[in-house]
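Re: weekly structure request thread

Next one in the queue (237 aa):
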Amino acid sequence: MARNPPSDTPRRNLYGRVRGRALRASQKCYLDDLVQVGLTGVNRDENPARRKLDLKATFGDRPVWLEVGFGGGEHLVHQAVRNPGVGLVAAEPYINGVAMLLGKIRSTGVRNIRIHPGDARDLMDVLPDQSVTKAFLLYPDPWPKRKHHRRRFVTPEYLAPLFSILVPGAQFRISTDIPDYVRQAMEEVPKAGFVWQAARPDDWRKPWEDWLPTRYEQKAVREGRTPTYLTFRKPDA
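Done, posted below.
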């Protein structure tokens, strides 16, 4: 398992807690699988020179997709099963979610996922420029207090490196049930260079054809909140 950054590393502010309920014995066993599917060279103590990851050594010539904050991993595994010719990298600091994903990987047998159990910005720092063909930001932490809005992913600190690692023409998907998150995304994501791909209301009201509702979406619907699906694109070179 990847180690924590050294104490003199500036703290990222994208996420809050990293642990929830105590892991079950089976979930603790799943964490052993990080030896096989965990990304190395992401944390600064592993990679003090901040060398870029060699994605070809991991995935060959397959296109690479990125999921930021995969929650329990249901969407990530769904995409991995549906797209065996794609390599998926993902970041999630919440160890309970990491354990849930590892359990799903073990049960499905998918082999095209690699995990960073930490902050997405640290992962983006070592992904090569123009190496990712699709990115997902699904039900991110809304940070509802105004003073915490700077911690949202849809800020220049995160959008600028995301733009750099995406290939021209790459798609960036966002789903959220928080209207103010939609507002901030619509303000900030185009500023970062992305183009919104909506032509009609159904383009943000209805999910993508390959969508799998996450547990966060199911909870939002049960509680009466309406999901929004935003699709952006990095312009061609």
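The CA atoms of residues 37 and 161 lie 24 Å apart. The domain at 25-233 is CATH 3.40.50.150 (Rossmann fold).
Next request, please.
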